[in-house]
Amino acid sequence: MKPAPFDYIAPESVEEALAVLAEAGEDARILAGGQTLSPMLNMRLVEPAVLIDISRLPALDYIRRKNGHIEIGAAATQNALENWPELAAQAPLLAQALPHIGHFQTRNRGTVCGSLAFADPSAELPLCLALLGGEVVLQSASRQRVVKAADFQLGMLSTAREADEIISAARFPVAEAGAGYGFAEMALRHGDFALAAIAVKAGKTGVRIAIGGVADRPMVRNFPAGIEGAALDDALNDLAWDLAAADDPHATARYRRELVRRLGRKTVEEAKSCRV
Amino acid sequence: MPRLKAGEKSRISFKLNGRKVSGDAEPRLLLADFLRHEIGATGTHVGCEHGVCGACTVRLDGVAIRSCLTLAVQANGRRVDTVEGLAEEDGTLSRLQAAFRRNHALQCGFCTPGILMSLEDFLARGGEPDEGEIREMLSGHLCRCTGYSGMVRAVLEIVEEMHEEQNA
């Protein structure tokens, strides 16, 4: 349970980090909070030649409102977002979802962008980004591009990030006026991977739902604004089957479908009741 | 900082419980192992080595973190606080340690150093956490002998004390 040898560099600027990354490419790993990467290093699931530590770059450590988004830099921790004074008003969904991520002690160090980069199918932040239709900023030494959530996460632990790019920032749209938000998940213990996680936005023009932990990435559906009762149950049942859940050691596919139906209904109703 | 080469040791120094300590570390050396094997500060315990059990929790610049998920080189020039820094020089227990003793909040003591360091940060953030919030915070630690009731009692006692002091 000790990492294999690697070079370590703590660059003084983003430009220096990108230059090192451009040279090392797939042999390098970006170290931000390290709450996923470090266990993988300890277990030798990854053995990079060089670690590029961006955790202390002030230029990447920010949370700000910008053009209708909350933009979160790559070095900003989950805890910093949780304690951001405007969070409950600007992003009620994130305020509900963040306490479910790991534990107090890991959120102190784990970053928002790091969670998006890892792209675990059951992770809360990729789910929220997918539901809200957010985007990530990918930066390399030679170019910058902005990728929508739906085009970013491609499958199990797989994203559109190229080997010479870092996620320099994530952008979550601020709460829509008049919309209500809901979040719920079921895990074996608090802080464990979700067996199913559900995020809902109930807006004026429609109900949008995203499911994590069941398919290989967060899956999003749009329902009509007035959906309720048997129509809602039918829509959730269709969605539950469409996700093609599989049995694994933690839960059966049948149980996961049941979570989508029941927790889905509860979360949709909660989001609707939060509409203002 | 220049690029540190794999397998090559460099000198790491930081403030441990208020005193400067130094040692040599390869880039891959974990902070937990640096503390125990290089400095000889064995109060910090190592359990799962992948961030789940919480035994190795220390404070880095005041913030409770897993020292098994942090490299020793990342602590260079910073402040690290561990369980050894809690009691007075003469052995007088800190308020938190005394509350743990009163409430039988430990048995074998393996998980205790990490839990104390988490709580030091948690309680320093102010507010008056209720039982639910305390239990949620403790969910980041595994204790396999006493369970958590004594710990919750100990923390609630301290929260109550702090409340009374503020209103005195």
How is this structure best described in words?
- The complex is a heterodimer of chains A (276) and B (168).
- Chain A has 11 helices and 14 strands.
- Chain A is α+β, with helices and mostly antiparallel strands and 276 residues long.
- Chain A has a 5-stranded antiparallel sheet. A 4-stranded antiparallel sheet of chain A has the order 11-12-13-14, sandwiched between helices. A 3-stranded parallel sheet of chain A has the order 1-3-2, with helices on one face.
- The radius of gyration of chain B is 17 Å and the shape is elongated.
- Chain B has a 5-stranded mixed sheet, sandwiched between helices.
- Chain B folds into 2 domains: 10-85, Ubiquitin-like (UB roll), CATH 3.10.20.30; 95-166, DNA polymerase, domain 1, CATH 1.10.150.
- Chain B has helices at 31-39, 95-102, 112-124, 131-138, 149-166, and strands at 10-16, 19-25, 57-60, 63-66, 79-81.
- Helices cover 33% and strands 15% of the residues of chain B.
- At the A-B interface, β1, α2, β3 and α6 of A face β4 and α3 of B.
Question: TL;DR?
Answer:
The complex is a heterodimer of chains A (about 280) and B (about 170). By secondary structure, chain A is of the alpha+beta class. Helix content of chain A is about 35%, strand content about 25%.
Helices and strands, with pairings:
The complex is a heterodimer of chains A (276) and B (168).
Chain A: E1 7-9, H1 14-24, E2 28-31, H2 37-42, E3 50-53, E4 63-66, E5 69-73, H3 78-82, H4 87-90, H5 92-97, H6 104-107, H7 112-118, H8 124-132, E6 135-139, E7 144-148, H9 149-152, E8 153-155, E9 158-159, E10 166-173, E11 180-187, E12 194-202, E13 206-212, E14 219-224, H10 229-242, H11 253-273
Parallel strand pairs in A: 1-3, 2-3
Antiparallel strand pairs in A: 4-5, 5-10, 6-7, 6-10, 8-9, 11-12, 12-13, 13-14
Chain B: E1 10-16, E2 19-25, H1 31-39, E3 57-60, E4 63-66, E5 79-81, H2 95-102, H3 112-124, H4 131-138, H5 149-166
Parallel strand pairs in B: 1-5
Antiparallel strand pairs in B: 1-2, 3-4, 3-5
Helix pairs in contact in B: 2-5
